[in-house]
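During the no-cost extension, the postdoctoral fellow (Dr. R.K.) reprocessed legacy sequence entries with the updated structure-token encoder. One reprocessed record is reproduced below for audit purposes.
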Amino acid sequence: MNFPFFIARRYLFSKKKTHAINVISIISVIGVAVATMALVIVMSVFNGFHDLVATFFTNFDPQLKVVPVKGKSVAADDPILTKIKKLPQVEVATETYEDMALAIYHGRQAMVTIKGVDDNFADLTHITDILYGDGRFELHTANLDFGTPGIRLANDLGLGARWDNYLRIYAPQRQGQLDMSNVESGFVVDSLLSSGVVFTVNNSKYDKSYILTSLGFARRLFNAQGEVTALELRLKPGSNFDAVKSKMQDIAGTKYKVEDRYEQQADTFKIMEIEKLMAYIFLTFILIVACFNIIGSLSMLIIDKKDDVVTLRNLGANEKEITRIFLFEGRMISVIGAIVGIGLGLLLCLLQQQFGLVSMGGGNGAFVVTAYPVSVHYTDVLIIFLTVIAAGWLAVYYPVRALSKRLLK
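Re-encoded structure tokens follow.
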């Protein structure tokens, strides 16, 4: 057995001459454990919100989306897009056209995003799972076009799930100059009827600005016949997602980007990752402060064991081996604190998942979930464990060497 480790283990668990040393050692372990537990819980809560937000987008965003690298729109009959649509792994392919417009209803107005989609849009996404109202999701019938707005947009315009008369949509002319003497001539004006339903993604980007309608309506409104802003795709069950996406990108070349759901919402998830990183950094600083408590415990232990050090020297132990005894002591405190903290953190996360111990908004239904979501990622747990070990070992290395040289002479 490693001699310094054997002695350090005896010192850690044996009763000291001065009772305060035992108390300080326990406090050091508790400090490291609490900081570690906080890291596990906070990281898991961030993961929970990340996964929760991802489920919202899943109902609205397609599995894969092909968008042009340059410009807003491209020809719908582009051979590249046709080749992608014909891949055997593609189950549903939907052409879409999306752009900004002005919506006016009974004197209320709002800037909106008109998203025109093919008739198979309901097969592409889970839009029918997030609809509210007494109607059904439909895009057009005969020469009439229907609109399905986000729930917050419907509230802002005073529409409700079902509105009477027409919702007027104004879009600027894509060609020609604006005649200031006849401003209305600079706009394309069209109207939408109510589909009798609204959608809610629980994200303001969609709920407050989007209106789903037919692809034909969007092309007429924006003078974009035969054009698309994106090709949205759903793969057949059992398809190798990463392999198919890579193959599509090879076909698309540099002209198009093939985006998965996370890439479609890159800004949102990037912000969440930055927030998680900042929380990790701040809590790591707290952990480092907690680790410095170990130094006080080791300093008193070195003083307490001066007589033992003399005995060890007489038995042949050199200064390096004696220093390693106290280094092992500090490292064992950090390891025990890390294990206890991770265990408690995982236990609390499990209890939160099962029982929702910490609620959101007092459980009054103001939030989409009643309790803080928690998702334990074991890569995070490993990173936290390594962080605690590294912080604990670095915190004691130089101080213990300096104290040993000063106090053991």
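The chain has a mean pLDDT of 87. The CA atoms of residues 95 and 231 lie 5 Å apart. The remaining legacy entries will be reprocessed before the final report is submitted.
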